[in-house]
Design goal:
The protein is mainly beta. It folds into two domains: about 15-135, Proliferating Cell Nuclear Antigen (Box); about 150-270, Box (Proliferating Cell Nuclear Antigen), CATH 3.70.10. The chain has five helices and 18 strands. The chain has helices at about 25-30, 85-90, 160-170, 225, 230-235; strands spanning about 15-20, 40-45, 45-55, 60-65, 70-75, 80-85, 105-110, 120-125, 125-135, 150-160, 175-180, 185-195, 195-200, 210-215, 220-225, 240-245, 250-255, 265-270. The protein has a nine-stranded antiparallel sheet. β11 (about 175-180) and β12 form a beta hairpin. Keywords: DNA damage, DNA repair, Nucleus.
């Protein structure tokens, strides 16, 4: 690892410093939440969380655990800043998005603290590039308060099941209706597009169903325009956890395994679109 052994310059103290053998591990996760230009980064001893929000209705979080990095050091309890996600991704892929076989882009990132830029040192094939990205004051983030005690229904699916569903359902529909129930239809996805209504049912004993914990019947609708960004994470993932709380807020947690077999998570929170009356069901 070219950068992990390099100490900071004399007298410099970084609030956050980290190194990765392969920058693609980070860039692929960040692309999965790149549906708005800016992101808020929070670093703690457990790792790095990158949060993107839109219209106070949807929030995406990419979690990169400290163990993924070859080196990860946070000098304060937490370090937080806002940054252009577009610029960060451009810098991480400055050597291109696909490396030659047997080569990878090594990364070292350093942040001195409030008001300072995020510094990236990238090396591939003996060539080193240094990028400085301006940081901004972090904005207050939505708190969906999605603790496990408030979860009403939860299922875990193999991701291929949800990928097939998104391919088959009518995406001219404005909403995706999700029904979760301890009884039939157990788990149903419905759309209402130009070609009429379409439903996909998953029995609780389906080969694609890894866990099924439903306590009550819930039917909620979510704007497809808000859910579409999550398909980037879905494409990378191997499993997805789908949870709802009593108000119908939706959590989609994608488990993503990188090229080295390490596990990371991307989570989307989404507000329900509207209340559904019994007459509509």
């Amino acid at each position: 690892m070219p950068f992990s052994a390099q100490p900071p310059a004399s007298g410099e103290r970084y609030a956050l410093s980290a190194s990765l053998d392969n920058a693609r591990h980070l860039s692929s996760l960040l692309r999965a939440v790149h549906f708005q230009d800016h992101a808020t980064c929070l670093a703690t001893a457990s790792g790095l969380r990158v949060t993107v929000e839109d219209a106070k209705c949807i929030q995406a979080n990419a979690f990169i655990q400290a163990e993924i990095f070859q080196e990860f050091s946070v000098q304060e309890e937490s370090v937080m800043f806002r940054i252009s996600l577009s610029v960060l991704l451009d810098c991480l892929t400055i050597f291109g998005t696909s490396s030659l076989p047997g080569t990878s882009t090594a990364l070292r990132l350093c942040y001195r603290g409030y008001g300072y830029p995020l510094m990236l040192f990238l090396e591939e094939g003996g060539v080193v590039t240094v990028c400085k990205i301006n940081t901004q004051e972090p904005e207050e983030l939505l708190d969906f308060d999605f603790c496990s005690t408030k979860v009403v229904n939860k299922i875990i699916l193999q991701s291929e099941g949800l990928r097939e569903a998104f391919a088959e359902l009518d995406m001219t529909s404005e909403v995706l209706q999700i029904t979760m129930s301890p009884d039939k239809p157990y788990f149903r996805l419905s759309t209402f597009g130009n070609a009429g209504s379409a439903h996909l049912d998953y029995p609780r004993d389906s080969d694609l169903m890894e866990a099924f914990h439903c306590n009550q019947t819930q039917t909620n609708r979510y704007k497809i325009s808000l859910l579409k960004p999550s398909t980037k994470a879905l494409a990378l993932s191997c499993k997805v956890s789908i949870r709802t709380d009593a108000q119908g807020f939706l959590s989609l947690q994608y488990m993503i395994r990188n090229e080295d077999g390490q596990i990371c998570f991307v989570e989307y929170y989404c507000c329900p679109d509207e209340n559904i009356t019994e007459a509509e069901l």
